[in-house]
Here is the input.
Amino acid sequence: MDYSQFLAMKQELALLLVFLLVFLYDTFLPKKAQKGLPVFAIVLTLAATAAGFCCHCLGSACNTVAFAGMYETSPVIAAIKGILNVGAVIVLIQSIKWADSENMTMRRGEFYELLLVTLFGMYLMISARHFLLFLIGLESASLPLAAMVALDKNRYESHEAAVKYILTAVFSSAIFMLGLSFLYGLTGSLYFQNIYFALTANGSANLLLILSVAFVISGIGFKLSLVPFHLWTADVYQGAPTSVTSYLSVISKGATAFAFLVVLVQVFGSIYSSVWEWMLYALIILTITVGNLFAIRQRNMKRFLAFSSVSQAGYIMLGIIADNAMGMAAMMYYILVYIFSNLAAFGVIGAIENATGKVSMDNYNGLYKTNPRLSFAMMLAMFSLAGIPPFAGFFSKFFIFTGALNQGSVAIYVLVGIALLNTIISLYYYLLVVKAMFINDTETPLPTFRSSCSERLGLWITVAGVIGLGIVSWFYSSLLELAQVAPMNMYFIG
Here is the structure.
C-alpha cells in the first residue's frame, strides 16, 4: 500500500489534527486552562477551514483519486467541505456560553471532540466513491451525534431524544445496507462508477433494482429528514441541547444533501427516468408540503424550526433534478444561505433560552419592546428563510428554481409550481414569529437582558451573511464557475 495516498486527504488530515490537538488540550491541560478550550477549538477549526480553501487549488481543474478509486477530491468537493466548516465554526462560537455553563463544564471537551468526529464522517461521505467508504463515513457522522444529543444528562427530554435518534439511525442504516446488498447482487461491485456502467449496460429496470434504489433513498432520506422518513426530527430537535440542534439542522443536513446528490447521480444516473425520477418528485412534494403544514401548528420554537428544516430539505433536493452546473451551484449556494439563516434563528433561540429558559413562541410576544436587537436578528432570519427579497434566502430559492427549470420537462414546471405555492405557506408561518415579536402584546414580556459576547458575535456573523449573500453576487458566481470546471462525471443523468 502506498501511504502517500493519504496526502490526497488534506482536509480530512487537517480535521484529524484539530481533533487530536483539542483532545490533548482537554485531557492534559490543568483545570485553570480549560476555560480556553472553546476559543482553542474555534481558532483551530477556522485555521483548518482557511487552509482547505487556500491549499486545494480552488478554481482550477485539479482532481485527485486515491485508494483504488474509493476516495475522490476536487475543487468543488473542497468547497463543499469548506461550506460545512463555516457552519461548524459559527455553531462553535454560538455554543460557548452553553459549553461554559455549570452542567457542561465537565463534558465541554466531549462536545467539541464529538462534533469534529461527525464532521470527519461527513467529509468521507462526500468524497466516497465506494459504498464501503461511504458507509464508514455515514456511521462516523451518525453515531457520535446520538451522544451529542444526550449531552444534557440532567434533562429527561435529552435522553429520550438520543434514544429516538439512535434507534432511527440504526434502522435507517439497516435499510440502506439491505439496498446495497441488492445492488451488489445485481452489479457485483460497490464502486460507484462500476455500478453506473453495469446499470447502463443492463438497460432495463427490474423489481430488485427498483427495491434497491428505494431502500438506498429511504436510508439516506432518514438522515435528511425527507417525508415520510422525518418523524424523528421534531422530537430530537426539541430534546437535544440547542447548540446540538443547530448543528443537526444545518451541517448534518447539508452534508447529507451533498452525499445524496453524489449517490443518486453518479450511481443511479443512468436509470433516472425509468426508476427514481418519480420517486424523487413525490419525495420533494411531500417533504415541502408536509413540513410547511406541520410547522404552522408548532408553538415550541425548536419544533417549529424542525419542520421548517424538513421543508427546506425538499427545496434543496431540487438541485439534484437540475442536472447541470447551475443546479449544483444553486444547491451549494442554497445550503450556504441556509446555514447563515437557520443559525441566526437558532442563535436568538439559544440566547433567550440561556438567559430565561423560554423556548415557546408565545414567550416571544412583545420581544421587540424589551430586546429589540434580538428581535431584529430573528426577523432577518425569518425573512431569509421565507425567501423575502432582498435577503439571501430569496436569491437561493430563485437560483435553485431556475436551475431546476432548465431541465425543461412539463413535470419539472409542475413540481416547481407546487414548490412556489408552498413558499406562500412558509411565508405565513415565518411571519407568525415576526408578528409575535413586533405586534402581539403581552403583560409579561421577556425581561431585558444582555447576551454574552460569543452570542452577539455569532449573531453578527449570521446577520452579515444573510444580508451580504443577498446583495453581493460574487458568492454565487464563484460557486457557478467552480461547478462548471468540476469533473462532469460527477453529475450525469442518462
